[in-house]
Design brief:
Pfam families: AAA_14, DUF4143. This is AAA family ATPase. InterPro entries: AAA_14, DUF4143, P-loop_NTPase. The protein is 43% helix and 18% strand. It is α/β, with parallel strands linked by helices and 452 residues long. It has 2 domains: 141 residues, Rossmann fold (3-Layer(aba) Sandwich); 295 residues, no CATH class. The strands form 2 sheets. An 8-stranded mixed sheet has the order 7-6-8-9-10-11-13-12. Strands 2-3-4-1-5 form a 5-stranded parallel sheet, sandwiched between helices. The longest helix has 22 residues. It is globular.
């Protein structure tokens, strides 16, 4: 498969098709995702291919005339649609057209109207947004029950391989994952080389397209810098009143993740910092899907959320490629040591930070909420444990440790297995080497995290 210039194949397209076929106009679709993750492009492509006509209303850049129609003329839908059609110069066809509300969080009134537009039944409706659950964006509206909600993430590793023109490798990886068979040295090394590219470029469409044009990491880095600047602009615009705290947390992520214990320590921002005064800032970044928050589950069981301690958390960047650029944001591309370290398999530089972040990204993309286990017992070292991730597996829990290829011990995992043996499914170590089962622990190459 070759990727056409400017296009990327996305798995979520099939979710949109399912919604169109199953809903038959009885619900609107809300797509939530970080800015620049590809929501608008996906909707435009879907509308063009799957409908006779479409109108896209971008509430980030919309005229006062359109806003006035939503505010004052939506009680007469015949006239409303006639004016909308005339304004955009697009004919609308009963049950053959879709209207897209892009960045709908910037005009909550349009979202509230979804209930009545869906009841009218003439057209389909897709909404896109970020920060759509923030109190500020919903406090004055009734959230329509007619919405179906899906999250859109950066491209995963399989989608990145598609962008490289490779549709055969991921199914083979899946087969080896299912059978727990090694891929063999040569194939594993080839896939790890592609995975290193993925970690560096990340999954943001603009970064991937910039890289693919000439296989140029610098062009990718420039695209990522623009995205990071956009995020900062959004903080200034939409986190009014506590933007300084959001900036402090956001800028501190690489430093926090580079430490051995990756829990976010507010004391690094200020000796007087307390979680309650920064809580809204963490929520803002999480709702914007800029970060993936991982909470400490103090009592590992099937209901991980029930024992999660929100004051003890790790903050991973939602896209690992963005983390790599953010880490050296104050230096030019040529001085970013991570590119060389990853490309030439010298990941001792901030090794844990990069590998844990990409695993968090892949687990989150696979539908998991992120939890870890941390217990520090100064009086009894046997009770001291740090498990990087916990995921549910049926009615049990699977612990996951992320290790370097040269690791020697997994004492925390051994203690965790012994203490919670009745609650556990498979135990995993994710590392840069091939599939192996040792000490009753399944060792998987990092790229297989996409199947957990």
């Amino acid at each position: 498969m070759s990727t056409k210039k400017g296009t990327l194949k996305r798995k979520i397209y099939s979710r949109l098709l399912e919604w169109k076929q199953n809903s038959n106009g009885e619900t609107a679709l809300m797509i939530d995702g970080a800015r620049r993750v590809g929501k608008s492009y996906l909707c435009r492509e879907f509308a063009t291919k799957e409908y006779r006509s479409h109108i896209i209303i971008d509430f980030g850049n919309v005229s006062g005339e359109i806003l006035n129609m939503f505010n004052n003329e939506s009680d007469n839908l015949d006239l409303f649609f006639a004016k909308l059609s005339a304004y955009y110069g697009t004919a609308l066809y009963n049950r053959e057209s879709v209207i897209i509300f892009d960045e709908v969080q910037q005009f909550p009134r349009a979202r509230q109207l979804i209930k009545y537009l869906v009841e009218d039944g003439r057209f389909d409706y897709i909404e896109t947004g970020s920060l759509i659950r923030l109190k500020k964006n919903v406090q004055d509206i009734i959230i329509p029950s007619e919405e179906e909600h899906i999250e859109m993430f950066p491209l995963d590793f399989e989608e990145f391989l598609w962008a490289l023109g490779d549709e055969v490798t991921a199914p083979l990886i899946k087969k080896c994952f299912d059978t727990l068979q090694p891929l063999g040295h040569a194939l594993h090394q080839k896939i790890m080389n592609d995975f290193r590219q993925y970690m560096l470029v990340g999954g943001m469409p603009q970064s991937i397209l910039a890289y693919l044009s000439e296989k140029n990491f610098e062009k990718s880095d420039i695209a990522k810098r623009r995205i990071l600047q956009l995020y900062k602009d959004d903080v200034s615009k939409f986190a009014e009143g506590y933007e300084d705290k959001v900036f402090a947390i956001f800028d501190g992520i690489p430093g926090q993740l580079s430490k051995k214990e990756k829990k976010y320590k507010l004391s690094s921002l200020s000796k007087e910092a307390r979680f309650r005064s920064y809580e809204d800032s963490f929520i803002w970044l999480n709702e914007a899907m800029i970060i993936n928050t991982c909470y400490n589950a103090t009592d590992p069981s099937i209901g991980l959320a029930l024992s999660s301690d929100h004051t003890t958390q790790k903050c991973y960047m939602g896209d690992t490629g963005l983390l790599i650029t953010q880490t050296f944001m104050d230096k030019p591309y040529a001085e970013n040591e991570l590119y060389k370290a990853i490309l030439f398999d010298r990941l001792s530089i901030n090794e844990g930070m990069i590998m844990e972040n990409v695993v968090a990204q892949m687990l989150r993309r696979n539908g998991h909420r992120l939890y870890f286990y941390s217990r520090n017992d100064a009086t009894n070292r046997a009770n001291h444990m740090e498990i990087d991730f916990l995921i549910t597996a049926g009615n049990k829990i699977s612990p996951i440790e992320v290790k370097s290829g040269n690791y020697r011990f997994h004492s925390s995992l051994d203690k965790f297995k012994q203490k919670f043996s009745k609650k556990l499914a498979n135990s995993y170590i994710l590392y840069p080497k091939d599939v192996m089962i040792k000490d009753d622990i399944i060792h998987l190459p990092l790229y297989m995290a996409m199947f957990l």
